[in-house]
Amino acid sequence: MSRNTALTPVEMVLVTLRFLATGSILQIIGDFNGIDKSTASRVISKVIRIIAQLGNQFINMPSTAEELQKVRQGFYAISPFPKSIGALDCTHIKI
Predict the structure, then answer these.
(1) Whole-prediction pTM
(2) 24 and 47 share one domain
(3) Is residue 23 domain-shared with residue 34, that is, in the same domain?
(4) Quick check: 29 and 37 in contact, CB under 8 A?
(5) Are 59 and 74 spatial neighbours (Cβ–Cβ below 8 Å)?
(6) 43 with 16: CB under 8 angstroms?
(7) Number of structural domains in the chain
(8) Half-sphere exposure of residue 24: CA atoms within 13 angstroms, side-chain side
(9) How far is residue 54's CA from residue 72's CA, in Å, rounded to a whole number?
(10) Signal peptide location in the record (predicted)?
(11) Does some domain include residue 3?
């Protein structure tokens, strides 16, 4: 049974986080939250677009050789993986 009221911003973020964390299909996400899968799809798209727009405020890449070296040293102190400047979701990637 789908709900008839609009989702609050907090509920929209929670729906999106559940989708991203579990990788579940939209039907399951919708059923779990009492919304239609088309609503889940729209909500997730909207929240992800907003997060992407805010990315530059929170994700910063080193812009000079000195900054790059400092970040490498700091990351190496946390996780001795050579020439890394960070990790996403515990996965080392080359950017």
Answers:
(1) 0.62
(2) yes
(3) yes
(4) yes
(5) no
(6) yes
(7) 2
(8) 19
(9) 24
(10) 1-23
(11) no
